[in-house]
Amino acid sequence: MSNIDQLAAIVGPGNVITDSNDLAPYLVEERGLYHGAALAVVRPNSTAQVAEVVKLCASAGIPMVPQGGNTGLCGGAVPSEDGRAVVISTERLTRIRAVDPVDFTLTAEAGCILSNLQQAAAEADCLFPLSLGAEGSCRIGGNISTNAGGTNVLRYGNTRDLVLGLEVVLPDGQVWNGLKRLRKDNTGYALQHLFIGAEGTLGLITACVLKLFPRPREIATAFVALSDLEAALPLFARARTASGDSVTACELVPRIGLELGMRHVPGVRDPFESPHDWMLLLELSSSRPGGLRDALEEVLGQAFEDGLAVDAVIAESDAQRSDFWRIREAIPEAQKKEGGSIKHDVAVATSRVPEMIRRCTSAVEAAMPGIRVVPFGHLGDGNTHFNLTQPPDADKAAFLTRWEEMNRIVHDIVVEMEGSISAEHGIGRLKVDELVHYKPEIDLNLMARIKKAFDPNGLMNPGKILR
Amino acid sequence: MSNIDQLAAIVGPGNVITDSNDLAPYLVEERGLYHGAALAVVRPNSTAQVAEVVKLCASAGIPMVPQGGNTGLCGGAVPSEDGRAVVISTERLTRIRAVDPVDFTLTAEAGCILSNLQQAAAEADCLFPLSLGAEGSCRIGGNISTNAGGTNVLRYGNTRDLVLGLEVVLPDGQVWNGLKRLRKDNTGYALQHLFIGAEGTLGLITACVLKLFPRPREIATAFVALSDLEAALPLFARARTASGDSVTACELVPRIGLELGMRHVPGVRDPFESPHDWMLLLELSSSRPGGLRDALEEVLGQAFEDGLAVDAVIAESDAQRSDFWRIREAIPEAQKKEGGSIKHDVAVATSRVPEMIRRCTSAVEAAMPGIRVVPFGHLGDGNTHFNLTQPPDADKAAFLTRWEEMNRIVHDIVVEMEGSISAEHGIGRLKVDELVHYKPEIDLNLMARIKKAFDPNGLMNPGKILR
């Protein structure tokens, strides 16, 4: 029997895709950066089937590429162009096995779409706080494999912090059962944490136990005009304290981000009468109703007195709250419509975000006069999407040829500031060389030793994270 | 030069201890379970000195035992009896390098005593939430190496969740610099998480960046008499929700725990007029002042109506709050005074704690009539100290000979319930065989591969966690 026939014997012929038209959507990614090739896409519907598929591929020496919703931004789920690999899709692993509001846990298979998990939590009067742009199509196994971030990290942590247990098929096809609902377990090395963020290079996640939280019953949202960029820091720290650590979003919006949104995205309006250079979307939420809005008003009142804020609007309705979020969320879309953009997903210590933005802005403006810097995002956790929009009259293609040059300028500064060149998007294929450039040799060496210990034949998602 | 002379050349002669009287306190542990031996205790005062010491030992083939405050309960910091090892003490690595209330971070060396870090955080109007019995003498490097738990885990997580960055001297003497203040960093495998909880077997932690939180400004504490053990679960879940996830302690106290305390520990009093089988110490705290006590009263009022609680007292003063905590904290001391006790540090899913307690109680009572079961502790995170006090008239030594038999009974049930045989104390030497007995072969195998990848010569804290 051919390998394809053997795969079909495991998952059924209808779940081995080899037709080039049907394969196509599994071989490209979001931004169109890569066009891979594959022997087949295989769609197992149980952990046992995944294990059999992996065993077969391992014994036949076939590289394997785990794929969830294929919404990643670094090409981590796309096979290489050589066409030797099998893509193992988790899209049929979609059972929610349990929701337990007493334990505050949810047990689900890796192919569950994030928004479905959010919904299942809400139906049990709980919150699953992971929230990001692709939530309607990304799958939880991919979120875990990339340790996804999003807008709630400052209060609830990264995906890593939301995972209690994992089930993983190892590169040799053995099933590792770490599917525990335990809040405490000190019995040896943290194997689970190795799989989280490993982008499928150490094994294929098939199921997980997630932490739930009490569902918020009061939300208070403000759009704040800052006196300057630096004012964001004390304002955020005060809001954390005054709200009982209930700041669940603290997003930076620069003037140009708002302007591009107003130009290109319907429904984006300036909440203020006069223009402001730097604005903050500040959201508090709590399952304890009452008092949160008062706390927000007090923080803002004090911020006016101390000269940190010059204007602010508190959302009076869900509609107004949505308007504020639309301003923030419109930025990437507006940038796309404005022409070419060169992106950075960087992090530094929260207290150093303003310094990083100022230094990087000066450096890229010096290298390319007319370039428009649009730094926005998760100020509360130190993660800035330091995105660059082409000069108004420039040629898009010519602008984009300078991607690596701009990356080098920005990443040099970020690394010198002890920051991260990939805060929440991961490495995938996109940043493999960048990682080699910036990671100390000792880190790369330890990572290579771990990869070898788990996947000695290098068949599990080869070429991702590590060369 | 002898190895001792070479060590003295690195750290200074006064910091190489070889005299047997001076060595003694480094070679025993808390409970007196082990009496190790060592070539010397070495006390470096910088990361560079640690690195030199480790390099020397590595090249001379000398086993190394990292030691912090030596307060661990499983013998993880004690050398073996063969006397070949050098103990590397972190007690001179006591600098607090930075406290940043804007970042909510604290950077400290591994030898800092936990209570000093709590104090440094408080002086910056912040909270470092790790809190446990030994906080006046344990050192943060040991807390991190054992992923210490304590009483605040249900709100703030284990030590693992409180660490942003680490600096580690690897088994070959190289310094791994992961001393970052980043809340987001997705650039490869989670090396940091491997060192956390590895009990010094993969490297020696020399410094860390810790997360701080806003300092609580309101604390509301209740001692609650439950209608039965099962009532603890819905009461805890409701308190989480009603308080805006501000339950920072939820500790179970059984009748016998209170009675032993009243018998043996000064200041322990029953807060209730009539006796109750099961009680809960419930504490809410928040940096947002106002409303927390109201929330607590509402939860308790509802609990009376629904028959979950039969009596409750809310602390009206700091003194009364301390009285409540004294009841809880007196239990281990009271047990010691009552005679022999056989201990278990187990965890199951929070929702299964009552079932676990009932099943294990029946089983040990059947095996030893008259045995007194004293299950207490961190109900909110599923971690029970399932401790057994000898029958009143039994011989202590004879009782203690049945330690392993009782362990087997309890651990069999806990493992069958998908629980943990070491929730917060770790493995050390004490539970190495127990780990081999219960951990699946695949887990032990992966752990051994990691150990080999990091420490191929097996010189770093040999015999701990893994055989």
UniProtKB/TrEMBL annotation, chains A, B:
One of the protein's GO biological processes: respiratory electron transport chain
Keyword check for Flavoprotein: yes
A GO MF term: FAD binding
Domain FAD-binding PCMH-type: 34-215
Cofactor(s), by name: FAD
Name under which the protein is recorded: D-2-hydroxyglutarate dehydrogenase
Keyword terms of this UniProt record: FAD, Flavoprotein
Gene3D superfamilies assigned: 3.30.465.10, 3.30.70.2190, 3.30.70.2740, Uridine Diphospho-n-acetylenolpyruvylglucosamine Reductase, domain 2 (3.30.43.10), Vanillyl-alcohol Oxidase, Chain A, domain 4 (1.10.45.10)
Organism per entry: Paramagnetospirillum magnetotacticum MS-1
Domain of life: Bacteria
